[in-house]
Prior knowledge:
By secondary structure, the protein is an alpha+beta fold.
Amino acid sequence: MIETFKIPEFLAELLESRSPSGLELEAQAVYRKWTEESADTYLQDVLGNCIARIHSSNDKKLMLAGHIDELGLIVKYINEDGFVFFDTIGGHDKILISGRRVQILTDRGIVKGVTGKRAIHLMSEADRKKVPELHEMWMDLGVSSKKEALKLVSIGDVAVYDHSLEVVNGSVCTARAFDDKSGAYVVGETLRRLATEKLKTQVISVATTQEEIGTRGAMTSAFSLNPDIGIAVDVGHATDSPDCDKRKYGDFKIGSGPILGRGPNIHPMVFKHLKNCAEKIKIPYQVEAEPRPTGTDARAIQIAGSGVATGLVSLPLRYMHTPSEVMDIKDLEFTISLLCEFAKSMHEMEL
């Protein structure tokens, strides 16, 4: 019998929200719903970053950042037969785009569609071996003319894959956008749990926007907040799938705790304190060598203003940037416990 696992409502609602980079409205509303009541102050800036602050009378500031944007598609052209051609928002694997149900976010509401390409039976042997280019794929809205299509969608409308959250087995789940709704949940839930604690540190949890197209929300929010320490919470590659070469990518498993980044993008004392906190509260953790600026909000936070002592905590994830990412929800709880302990003892650190 397969064991089921109760998924936190906050996380489930974030994963249900549709928030491609630049149009994070649904995820912003969820984040506000779950964090504003716990916060001393709550604001949403011009880029849409959701900024919740607790213990605001304390001088030292800890910024926790998890991004709420996700991959998407954007309507680019509609042909005379009503087929909708698109471009990508964020880094897609083009092999996986076609044959997907999609939800298109329009001023008229959600429009359903399917991504299509020429069927394999109609391809030459050479074509079957190629990855299709974006202009060789389209969205099918079930209409027969450009006029009909334009009654439903407009140039510039954005879409996400229509894949929902499901429990696979036990605490292992699949969803469309664990990257990085899981990180946004972690920083928001950490704030909620710390709101009633006595701290000597101000904690600011930020659901950042537009990370998938260049860590843009983290740039502006870290600059405006000017924290003493900033920790990005994002997903990291689990390498426990069959053909992943650990010699190249390291050894990381889902269910084995958060991954602590170590390298030039990470302040050594922040890494050390995260590691010490994990050992103090006896949670499992993993360490990843990061030899250059990471592809996360940590790269933007570190060089904001005059510089920020930065850490990176990654949640192990299989099949990143696909419509069905896989994660063990236990790792989120481990990470929340770690960040709570870090915040409680941050005043003891020496940078």
